[in-house]
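User: I'm preparing a small set of examples for a lab meeting where we compare how different chains pack in three dimensions. I only have the primary sequence for this one, and I'd like the structure in token form so I can line it up with the others. Please keep the answer compact; I'll paste it straight into my notes.
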Amino acid sequence: MFDNIEWEISKNLIEYDFAISKMEKRVLEIKKKSAKELVWLLEHKSIYTAGTSAKKEDLKNDEVEVRFTGRGGQWTWHGPGQRVVYLMLNLKHRKQDVKAYVNALEELIIMTLRDFSIKGKRIENKPGVWVKNKNNNVEKIAAIGIRVKKWVAFHGFSLNLNVNKEDYSGIIPCGIQDKGIANISDFLDLKLTADINDVIISEFKKIFPDMS
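Assistant: Understood. Below is the structure token output for the 212-residue chain.
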């Protein structure tokens, strides 16, 4: 089942433009059946990105570096302390259902968090994964934004490990003003998450066969 997937983990911070170029190139190759699917785990240099639903007024600081991208969703931030997972997958090999694919990504994040004894949950009409902080307030710990071309999906999700939450101050993340941002480090010592890349890959392998 997974022989056609390449797994890549980048240790250095990756420029956003380079990542987009690499993804788009791989998507074309997957369409032509000249390359394997790719799951790429990385961290970006600090940048704000706008999805197709982003509103101009949600960019609060127009002096920051931004990119307008073709993924779904609104404004978000990427940078150090955040694990980004880009998935270049041919949904024709699974289930040709974008909603089911997003649901599977949410489940992948929820199960990854569960492995670290953190309870993640969905909120209706608010994509991504959410947690309750120590004050019982709901905060966002993971964002999802995808694009699908002729049933080849790319982009993916971001999971906050230990971000500087002030880095989100230049935008209204995902257009939501009444909820905060959470880190895995809010719940446990990050030393306990040293194997998080392995956990994400392991949970991916458990969840995606269910879409076959």
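A couple of notes for your slides: The two ends are 9 Å apart (CA to CA). The helical segments are 16-31, 98-115, 196-207.

User: Perfect, thanks.
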